[in-house]
């Protein structure tokens, strides 16, 4: 036989007391506040952009000058045609790469070969 229950008599059953839920919710809100704290960002002006671009362009120019200077120094190094031929035939690499390695090691065949095998 089914027992009729008045809707007003039904109570919610909960594992946790109501006070504890409210505290948990507050902790979450505090954590959320920590996450969402931020500092207002200032607008970037066109002057700031031009200064930044100047710095980047200067750095790129310095790197290009350093590379050009290194190429000039490498081109002054005397290398032997026989050494280049040996590296090209033995290592099976292009002549330009063989010449470059020899120049980087100031014409030292042994050092160039060691560098190529590592």
From TrEMBL:
Domain Nascent polypeptide-associated complex subunit alpha-like UBA: 77-117
Signal peptide (UniProt feature, chain positions): none
Chain segments carrying region Disordered: 1-29
Bias (Basic and acidic residues) ranges: 15-29
Matches recorded under InterPro entries: Huntingtin-int_K, HYPK_UBA, NAC-like_UBA
A Pfam family: UBA_HYPK
GO BP of this protein: negative regulation of apoptotic process; protein stabilization
PANTHER family documented for this protein: HUNTINGTIN-INTERACTING PROTEIN K, HUNTINGTIN-INTERACTING PROTEIN K FAMILY MEMBER
Protein name according to UniProt: Nascent polypeptide-associated complex subunit alpha-like UBA domain-containing protein
Natural source organism: Ridgeia piscesae
Lineage: Eukaryota, Metazoa, Spiralia, Lophotrochozoa, Annelida
